[in-house]
Model the fold of this input.
Amino acid sequence: MATCLIGLGANLGNRRQTLEAAVCALQRHEAGSVVAQSAWHETPPAGGPVDQPSYLNGAIVLKTSLSPESLLAVLFEIEKELGRRRDERWGPRTIDLDLLLYDQCVLDSPELTLPHPRMAWRRFVLVPAVEAAGAMVHPTTGWTLDRLLRHLDTTPDYVALAGGIGVGKTSLAEALVQRRNGRLIAEKLDADELTSFYADPSGRAWRMELEWLHQRVELLAADHSAWAEPRLAVSDFWFGQSRAFARVWLPPERVDAFEQAWQEASRRVVRPKLTVLVEAPPDELARRVDRRGRPFEQGLDAIRLGQIQDAIRAATREPDVGPVLRLSDGPTETMLAELDAAVEAMRPYS
Done:
């Protein structure tokens, strides 16, 4: 029997009655049994249409012999029976049943993604989930649900944007700062230094990567007084990208030494509440790099840009990174809406 975590939510009609009817339907199903349940929690909407009613959210632990896909079909059928209509993304709904975890299964198909791709930073999911199953492990972060919630409670309001060269991190960071009246933490890379670096990457990578690492430490230093500000902080870089770039540019015999320097430096910086990985096809990155016409970038082709993006993606999947929102390239407004909803979902609610 698989151990599954299911999130429940509703903001239309008699919410409690509908949610309890959904729990009863799952309890009655011949292939499963409810073994734990949270309380119901009143929460504001995060994303979607403005002025929609508040939600009632909860979570249950289900033991089942069904496969993930079969269980998802059962959840959809219960939603349908209870009047769910799928008219608008993040819109008001009579009932919402989300398969959050299925044992330690990791799955990415058109029909189902496991673990649920946004649960790791959604407070309205984590609070009831911890009540029902705080010791369950989120398989892609490697953290328990309890630790994920404590992470939201104890880290500064700081979002770090990660991604390859030309993917648009700075413009997205600026848009989020403007929308949230936040504080931008931007890298200031010197054009002359970059010109020198790209002219001889193998010869200059060690010194330059160490120098850039130290600059990032200064910007993100945990003892910086700016972290006391109540405003959201957004950086157009991620501290972990230092190790990713080093793995691309440094000769193999230097990588371990840089890794040690990075590990030491990482103890002195603030961990982001959420890391946002923005990705685009390498050919598209090459076109953008070409269009912006920076002389020092002209040697960066799609192959090299793809290598850098792959290294950053791999770094975001390493142990202890924490929650990561993965955004595929698209219109800035679409990506901003997704990111803004994530920020809203991390906020405390009374």
Q: What stands out?
A: The chain has a mean pLDDT of 93. The two ends are 37 Å apart (CA to CA). The chain has two domains: 2-147, 158-346.
